[in-house]
């Protein structure tokens, strides 16, 4: 069996189509879909419609699927989530709501477990040292080659005592997760860890591409091939700017554009700056009100490159 492992699409239907076209060329037999199909880019409804039609698909939900049921408000902080929720058809929303958070199955005698985040399998071991808000600080000066990224991941999993203990506590098999937008894999004494990276929002400090992973299980043997399909980031941004999503969630969109251009995480840092800005002006409103959200973004444009230059390496 050959599976296309896909995660963190985040509404980016053009990236998903590139991945699915590539997967068909490689004659996949099925799909492992690891969550976070919505928000950030404006085509979540198209993404869900396509995913629902995939044959032999094992599908779980991600944390962003929980951000679609928000109370009515006019805040700026969740403008993208509310736009996305309004864009989904009733059938697609019901399909998302019915997805499980975890899945387990066996393929040719090999156990396969799926969860959106590595914390389900490894606790905080991997997340503490290997997440998108930490990675730029560890590689602050130039884009990171994927070979160096994989070497860093495998070194961490074998040399860090906390990570090594967390992996050794697992049964042999394949563990599929996403969430941190960092494409990695490795086998550690019969325990395969497979993160396909982000199809729609890569944040692993490397090249901009639609990422996914081919997982082959044949006769009890496991093989992993990571795929990265390059495409034009500026053309993608231009497409987003033609949508009502961009008009209604401009701040969020501009932060995502910056993430696409650098493949480095910005959102958590922007939220930090916005919290500081709101406290400084004495604004207690949470979620952040629209005027504060927009004013904080104007400050971000000048302050962030000076405060966090590692986030803007290209």
Write the layout of secondary structure elements.
Layout lengths: L1 E5 L6 H13 L4 E4 L10 H9 L4 E3 L19 H9 L2 H8 L4 E6 L2 E6 L3 H4 L2 H5 L5 H4 L7 H14 L1 H8 L4 E4 L7 E5 L2 E5 L13 E10 L2 E10 L2 H8 L3 H5 L1 H13 L4 H14 L9 H18 L7
Parallel strand pairs: 1-2, 2-3, 5-6, 6-8
Antiparallel strand pairs: 1-9, 4-5, 7-8, 9-10
Helix pairs in contact: 8-9, 10-12, 13-14
Brief synopsis:
With 314 residues, the protein is α/β, with parallel strands linked by helices. It is built from 14 helices and 10 strands. The model has no long low-confidence stretch (mean pLDDT 97).
Please give a structural write-up:
The strands form 2 sheets. A 5-stranded mixed beta sheet has the order 3-2-1-9-10. The radius of gyration is 19 Å and the shape is globular. The chain folds into 2 domains: 2-230, Purple Acid Phosphatase, chain A, domain 2; 233-312, no CATH class. Helix 8 (146-159) crosses helix 9 (161-168). It has helices at 13-25, 44-52, 79-87, 90-97, 119-122, 125-129, 135-138, 146-159, 161-168, 233-240, 244-248, 250-262, 267-280, 290-307; strands at 2-6, 30-33, 57-59, 102-107, 110-115, 173-176, 184-188, 191-195, 209-218, 221-230. 43% of the residues are buried. Helix 2 links the parallel strand 2 (30-33) and strand 3. It is an alpha/beta fold. The chain contains 14 helices and 10 strands.
């Amino acid at each position: 069996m050959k599976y296309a492992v896909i995660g963190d699409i985040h509404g980016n239907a053009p990236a998903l189509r590139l991945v699915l076209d590539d997967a068909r060329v490689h004659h996949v037999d099925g799909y492992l879909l690891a969550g976070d199909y919505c928000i950030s880019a404006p085509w979540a409804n198209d993404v869900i419609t396509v995913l629902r039609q995939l044959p032999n698909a094992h599908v779980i939900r991600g944390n962003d699927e929980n951000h679609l049921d928000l109370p009515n408000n006019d805040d700026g902080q969740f403008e993208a989530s509310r736009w996305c929720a309004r864009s989904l058809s009733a059938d697609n929303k019901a399909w998302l709501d019915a997805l499980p958070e975890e899945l387990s199955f066996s393929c040719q005698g090999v156990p396969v477990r799926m969860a959106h985040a590595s914390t389900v399998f490894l606790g905080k071991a991997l997340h503490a040292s290997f997440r998108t808000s930490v990675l730029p600080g560890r590689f602050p000066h130039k884009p990171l080659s994927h070979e160096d990224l994989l070497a860093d991941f495998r070194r961490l999993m074998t040399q860090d005592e906390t990570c090594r203990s967390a992996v050794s506590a697992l049964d042999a098999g394949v563990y599929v997760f996403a969430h941190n937008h960092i494409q990695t894999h490795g086998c550690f004494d019969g325990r395969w860890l497979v993160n396909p990276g982000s199809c729609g929002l890569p944040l692993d400090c490397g090249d901009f591409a639609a990422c996914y992973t081919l997982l082959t299980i044949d006769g009890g043997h496991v093989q992993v091939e990571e795929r990265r399909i390059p495409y034009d980031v500026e053309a993608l941004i231009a497409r987003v700017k033609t949508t009502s999503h961009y008009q209604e969630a401009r701040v969020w969109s501009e932060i995502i554009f910056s993430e696409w251009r650098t493949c480095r995480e910005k959102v958590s840092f922007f939220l930090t700056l916005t919290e500081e800005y709101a406290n400084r002006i004495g604004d207690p409103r949470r979620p952040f009100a629209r005027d504060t959200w927009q004013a904080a973004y104007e400050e971000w444009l000048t302050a962030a490159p000076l405060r966090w230059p590692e986030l803007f390496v290209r």
